[in-house]
UniProtKB/TrEMBL annotation:
<keyword id="KW-0479">Metal-binding</keyword>
<dbReference type="GO" id="GO:0005525">
    <property type="term" value="F:GTP binding"/>
</dbReference>
<keyword id="KW-0342">GTP-binding</keyword>
<dbReference type="GO" id="GO:0005737">
    <property type="term" value="C:cytoplasm"/>
</dbReference>
<keyword id="KW-0547">Nucleotide-binding</keyword>
<keyword id="KW-0963">Cytoplasm</keyword>
<keyword id="KW-0808">Transferase</keyword>
<feature type="binding site">
    <location>
        <position position="78"/>
    </location>
    <ligand>
        <name>GTP</name>
    </ligand>
</feature>
<dbReference type="GO" id="GO:0046872">
    <property type="term" value="F:metal ion binding"/>
</dbReference>
<protein>
    <recommendedName>
        <fullName>Molybdenum cofactor guanylyltransferase</fullName>
        <ecNumber>2.7.7.77</ecNumber>
    </recommendedName>
</protein>
<feature type="binding site">
    <location>
        <position position="32"/>
    </location>
    <ligand>
        <name>GTP</name>
    </ligand>
</feature>
<comment type="subunit">
    <text>Monomer.</text>
</comment>
<dbReference type="InterPro" id="IPR013482">
    <property type="entry name" value="Molybde_CF_guanTrfase"/>
</dbReference>
<feature type="domain" description="MobA-like NTP transferase">
    <location>
        <begin position="16"/>
        <end position="173"/>
    </location>
</feature>
<keyword id="KW-0460">Magnesium</keyword>
<dbReference type="GO" id="GO:0061603">
    <property type="term" value="F:molybdenum cofactor guanylyltransferase activity"/>
</dbReference>
<dbReference type="GO" id="GO:1902758">
    <property type="term" value="P:bis(molybdopterin guanine dinucleotide)molybdenum biosynthetic process"/>
</dbReference>
Length: 220
């Protein structure tokens, strides 16, 4: 039996989840959320962008829990062993949160949109369902997601079956899709030292550029 669509999310009903539980292998094993970028750790850039959009924050991390806790948000670790990927972090956050919705983003995308929740929520209202993801105009971005807590049992079963790919799981639930093609660079993540150097070279200390306003949202 198909479950009814939940009440549309508002900021007060959403926990922001920063996914920082990876190995950082392409960054030489460094914990990417704690890597400095223009004067502050990358996780701080993400927190500053995400916190105005949601009621509270959770950081999903499997290493350096004390360091992450120093930023003032609860820290949760995967319940699945062996660095099982972003879906494991999402499942752990769903288990820990008290809000009906979570909004997820990786820790290595410091330019994430400041209207991420607004546009994902709009997509849910237009397309229905319990899950919405971003699309940058070229490809889906399934770890930039808005999802309802009722999806947790299915997500846990998916992970327990050995599945790891976020996009496959999103397709199972006919995820609503929000268009972010006007700010595709917002989804550029920093996976390698070279990518880190390239972005850092463009930034004044302590500042990131704002996101452009999409044409349909501009005042005429």
């Amino acid at each position: 039996m198909t479950q009814p669509t939940p009440i549309a999310p508002t900021p007060a009903s959403v926990t922001g989840v920063i996914l920082a539980g990876g190995r950082g292998e392409r960054m030489g094993g460094r914990d990417k959320g704690l890597v400095d970028l223009a004067g502050q750790p990358m996780v701080r850039w993400v927190m500053d962008r995400l916190s105005p959009q949601v009621d509270r924050l959770i950081i999903s991390a499997n290493r350096h829990a004390d360091a992450y806790a120093s930023f003032g948000a609860p820290v949760v670790a995967d319940t699945q062993p062996g660095f099982a990927g972003p879906l494991a972090g999402i499942a752990a956050a769903l288990s820990a949160t008290t809000t009906p919705w979570i909004l997820t983003t990786p820790c290595d995308c410091p330019q994430l949109p400041d209207d991420l929740l607004q546009r994902l929520s709009r997509a849910l209202q237009a397309q229905g369902g319990r899950l919405a993801i971003a699309h940058d105009g070229e490809r889906p971005q399934p770890v930039f997601a808005l999802l309802h807590q009722s999806l947790l049992p299915d997500l846990e079963a998916f992970i327990s079956a050995g599945e790891r790919k976020a996009w496959i799981w999103c397709q199972r639930h006919h995820a609503a899709v929000a268009d972010f093609s006007h700010c595709a660079r917002a989804f550029t993540n920093i996976n390698t030292p070279q990518e880190h150097r390239l972005l850092a070279a463009t930034l004044p200390t302590g500042q990131l550029p704002g996101m452009p306003t999409p044409p349909e949202d501009r005042a005429s």
